[in-house]
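Hey, resending since the last one bounced:
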Amino acid sequence: MVSGVVLAFCAAICMGAATVLQAMGARRTAAGALMPALRQWPFLAGIALDSLGFVAELAALRSVPLFVVEAALASSLAVTAVVGAAVLDIRLRPAEWCAVAAVCAGLALLAIAAGREGEGAGDERLRLVALGASLTLALLGRTATHRVHHHRAALLGGLAGLSFGLVAVAVRLLPDLALPAVLTTPTTYAVVVSGLGGYLLLIEALRSGSVTAATAAMVIGETVWPALFGVLWLGDTTRPGFAPLAVTGFAASIAGALALARFGEAEG
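The structure tokens again:
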């Protein structure tokens, strides 16, 4: 279990630092120019760190409760804020330093309180539901992208968060990671559809309006419902008697992440 918590924190560090590196690469090119950015070493290093973080996330999801992993991923905003302050000359206000401290304290409480992940893995029907939900979210996201104009950033950010949360749940529902079995389960394709769909929705959300609104909606969407699903359906638990500490830590982590939502796009 300790290794799983460490992997979740490593995923947060990788993803938070990756955002800063990608911003560095993007700043060296014309606004909105993707291909020139791909030729910048910071941007490529950011992609590599994102990939490494995703692998760490997958490994963590197979060994610790969902509420720990999702809170840790939300805390990547604190990493982005701190690294961005040092590298991109972004000034953190006192309230934002307090938010960073809240995230760190919350994660410390979760690390102390976390128990083992539940043994529930769902059945084939639930795996099919996960695949259906991923396709439904992708369709809703496509429709919202073309037809919604008011509160667009928050809506698309929320849909992106729901998709990322579904990725976490689908990983937990995978019965086997070995080939060729992993290619025959519906949740594998739910991970792919939700992961790509969520990423595209987040990009469109960040382009559509307020970075803060988009990122805050994403954080809520990707953390709250997977945490509840893990506890209520998959049997995730805390250490005996540590449930109040875990709730406090989760709330502090998410509240701190929301206060740092403007760092969802480091260039902001």
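The radius of gyration is 18 Å.

Sorry for the duplicate.
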